[in-house]
């Protein structure tokens, strides 16, 4: 029994330390959902006179989340929260440009609104832009909780520390991985199954650029893998499907997998 009590003491102390350093996941996701609903209302149209109140409540919720696990003596929570909401208009305008690009590029889309309310790729980008701003403000843990929620719901794993320009398009969403030190320029489109990853994974490379740079106006098609912090995909390039790259590509390039599929049609047997 003493062994069990010792184990329980260990659990309690470990859980207490971890709980004190982590926001409640349900509170974080509720805050994100309310913010997304404020920016892109779907279930109901807000009355104009209620916008300020809705935004203020969302701001208070973020303050309470940060207060639940951050030390106010080390982080100016009020200033940090104010800085985030001062950025909200810029985030919103960027997301409208992202949605417009998806609508213009995807032949299956019939409106920007359809993209906003139903496209997992757009939602993944929206959560990324929110989480990225929180990361820029040096808020720990919370951005990762938000990005993992988007990962679970959309299949796109975008690290909030990655730098992604505007507009940005993700088509189909499933299986996309964008590493923490990835840099993506403006007007880039990527398809399902694309990985922007590291050549190797090692803890001592934490402060090293490990993931690729993708310059402006690049299209990367499905199931392509691009690895390495020194790998640069030059502007205006097209990277075809199922390509594996670990070296840079010059601007205006077209890169395709040369594997050829052979199809033979057998003649029917004669009676």
Furnish the topology, listing elements before pairings.
Layout (H helix, E strand, L loop, with lengths): L1 H19 L4 H15 L11 H17 L9 H10 L1 H18 L6 H7 L1 H17 L5 H13 L1 E3 L4 E2 L3 E3 L5 E3 L4 E2 L3 E3 L4 E3 L15 E2 L4 E2 L4 E3 L4 E2 L4 E2 L4 E2 L8 E2 L16
Parallel strand pairs: 1-4, 2-5, 3-6, 4-7, 5-8, 6-9, 7-10, 8-11, 9-12, 10-13, 12-14
Description of the molecule:
43% of the residues lie in helices and 13% in strands. It has helices at 2-20, 25-39, 51-67, 77-86, 88-105, 112-118, 120-136, 142-154; strands at 156-158, 163-164, 168-170, 176-178, 183-184, 188-190, 195-197, 213-214, 219-220, 225-227, 232-233, 238-239, 244-245, 254-255. The radius of gyration is 22 Å and the shape is globular. It folds into 2 domains: 7-157, serine acetyltransferase, domain 1 (Orthogonal Bundle); 162-258, Hexapeptide repeat proteins (UDP N-Acetylglucosamine Acyltransferase, domain 1). Helix 3 (51-67) runs antiparallel to helix 4 (77-86), helix 5 crosses helix 6 and helix 5 (88-105) packs antiparallel against helix 7. With 271 residues, it is α/β, with parallel strands linked by helices. The protein contains 8 helices and 14 strands. The protein starts with a helix and ends in a 16-residue tail after the last strand. The strands form 3 sheets. Strands 1-4-7-10-13 form a 5-stranded parallel beta sheet. It has a 5-stranded parallel beta sheet with strand order 3-6-9-12-14. A 4-stranded parallel beta sheet has the order 2-5-8-11, with no helix packed on it.
